[in-house]
Amino acid sequence: MAPxxxxxxxxxxxxxxxxxxxxxxxxxxxxVREIDIADDYVHxxxxxxxxxxxxAEEIVAMIxxxxxxxxxxxxxEVERVCEKEA
Length: 86
Known about the structure:
Elements: H1 7-14, E1 32-38, E2 41-46, H2 56-67, E3 75-80
Parallel strand pairs: 2-3
Antiparallel strand pairs: 1-2
């Protein structure tokens, strides 16, 4: 794990990432499903409002840019996940 980097730090950083259509941050919207931190690497699972979200790539890029500003983080991977239907 990157020295001192916590899930709370990542979530705090992600509050600055706004969904361009809904005008709320992705943490408030519940898009962040899982965060894994290992060494200088962060992996995030996100679930957007729709699997065909037209701004998905833009949101992923904003997430990567935001998380990469955290000291000690050199690599960020974002995976879009879909809720399984019952």
